[in-house]
Amino acid sequence: MTLLDTPRPSAAAPAPGTTTAPATPTQPGRLVDLFEFGLDSPICLTWELTYACNLSCVHCLSSSGRRDPRELSTEECKAVIDELERMQVFYVNIGGGEPTVRSDFWELVDYATAHKVGVKFSTNGVKITPEVAQKLASSDYVDVQISLDGATAEVNDYVRGPGSYATAMRAMQNMKDAGFTGFKISVVCTRQNIGQLDEFKAIADEYGAQLRLTRLRPSGRGADVWDELHPLPEQQRELYDWLVAHGDGVLTGDSFFHLSAYGSALPGLNLCGAGRVVCLIDPVGDVYACPFAIHDEFLAGNVRSEGGFQEVWRNSALFTRLRTPQSGGACTSCSFFDTCKGGCMAAKFFTGLPLDGPDPECVRGFGEQALEKRKEADSIPRPDGDHSHRTERGPRRDGGVVKTKSRGIPITLSLTRPDRPPVSACEENPLAGFDPRS
Amino acid sequence: MIPVDLDAAWDVHPQVSIRPEPFGALLYHFGTRKLSFLKDRTLLAAVESLAASASVRAAFASAGIPDGEIPRYHAALGTLAASSMVIERKP
After folding, report:
1. Is B51 a domain residue?
2. Which of A40, A142, A393, B2 lies 20 to 30 angstroms, CA to CA, from A301?
3. From the CA of A417, how many Å to the nearest CA of chain B?
């Protein structure tokens, strides 16, 4: 899931001081300060096209699996794209679910690029055939991001399910063969794969791709496995050092600004962009502050309502509130607050921590202390919406079943071979039988 | 920094999209997938004037930039040239 992949965005500015432009009431010098007050349109946004997915990754941010019967129709999606064009949203990060299983997926990608809305889509690679890769390589306006959470099948398939490593590698080979250079390999950093960073980089180099590392969030099904998968403190340090050493060459979607307290700030905006420069549109058109916060608390509105997406972005009560100066609470006195900003709102929320306190992975250890206190309180919010597959199709290769905590439902790792179509006609066409008028 | 000749004609790169914002503008280059920012509305006016101007100097003039401030805006344009956001017009 992407936020901003703009390594150290360059700013063209005459030296401060004598501008003839009408100064806005708050005209601090740094862009990051300007962005805290929000933009007229998002820089980019994440759009999850469907909850349908052929996989059942244990850490899925959106608890995807089965399509939702209320998902936006092709025409509704095109209307959203029209609106994004009017608002001059430069590009959308399309995800899911697995977006390519929507039967109108390529139609929507073509429609977006024809309307000057660039597309970067995230996929597990299931539909990236040699023919599709050829088509993608011929477009300047489409970028592709293939998810891989382990540099080996063993580590990857533990979280993404059996066969998923082979699917991703085959997709990457097809991309390379088609001459598509610079596609992204997107890795969620976990306790199991932090030790593989060099191997991930080697894979990216081998396929002419760019590596993208993002943070494991306790969102969606991720809430169930966060305690088991999130990197240990010493691994955080290892990750930070690795990111510093590789600089702009590795994308992070601005994921790790909470690690900047280890030393210098990492490349990127180092800002929580939720509702300010980014947001999420989910498959049923709900607009959330960010892709990691699918919960009523962060729901700003719906694109189907009057005024559409633009009205939600510019005037919703939630986004207006997020654009007012935030209280750093307990963190304000910390000497690293300027770059860390108290970390990730969603990570705090779904681990039951106060939003004005430290991030659960605060590098100074304040998060761990707060988590200990939280366990006594037992008041952890649950992510909203669960589209997980309901049928258990078999245990993991090692015989284990990953148990969810509070719901007590085993998360099923799909045994469906990825070269076969998804499980049912219904999921092959996420809009089958759906009539928006009825 | 790419040297920008003030007396040459320059253009915004055809793959660049410009979006005005309260603080200035956002630029996005679809070819390089890089984002850039104009932190000043006057600079935006100058960049938008490039296409209709015979020279960078003329674009600055039509944006109302006084001679004394040209060096600063010249440098800002150099930053944009370095990331291919603006390119020299070829006859």
Report:
1. yes
2. A142
3. 34
- As to burial, measured by CB atoms within 10 angstroms (0-12 exposed, 13-18 middle, 19+ buried), residue B41 is buried
Structural domain includes residue B3:
no
By C-alpha distance, which of A244, A246, A279, A283 is closest to A263? A244
- For residue A384, the model assigns a pLDDT of 79
Determine the structural domain holding residue B65 and report its residue range.
10-88
B1 pLDDT band, cuts 50/70/90, is low
**Count of C-beta atoms within a 10 Å radius of residue A349:** 21
Give how many domains chain B has, as a whole number: 1
φ, ψ dihedrals at A210, nearest 5°: -115, 135
CA distance A300 to A176: 40
Distance from CA of A26 to the nearest CA of B (A): 9
The predicted-structure confidence for A343-361, as pLDDT tens digits, reads as follows 999 999 999 998 888 999 9
Map tokens 């988590």 to a residue. Answer: A371
The chain A residue lying nearest B63, using CA atoms, is: A20
Pairwise CA distance, residues A364 & A421, whole Å: 47
What is the amino acid identity at position B67?
D
Q: What is the pLDDT of residues A357-396, one digit of tens each?
A: 899 999 999 998 888 887 766 667 877 788 998 644 444 4
Q: Which residue has the tokens 């097809």?
A: A174
Task: Please tell me whether the overall predicted TM-score, pTM, comes out greater than 0.80 for this model.
Answer: yes
Evaluate whether residue B57 is within a structural domain: yes
> Is A19 in contact with B79 (Cβ distance < 8 A)?
no
Report how far residue A315's alpha carbon sits from residue A329's, in angstroms, rounded to the nearest whole number.
26
- Inform me whether the C-beta atom of residue A234 falls under 8 Å from chain B C-beta atoms: no
Nearest CB to A31 within list B30, B39, B42? B39
pLDDT value of residue B34: 85
Instruction: Please report whether residue B26 resides in a domain.
Output: yes
CATH number of the domain that B24 lies in? 3.90.930.70
ipTM comes to 0.85
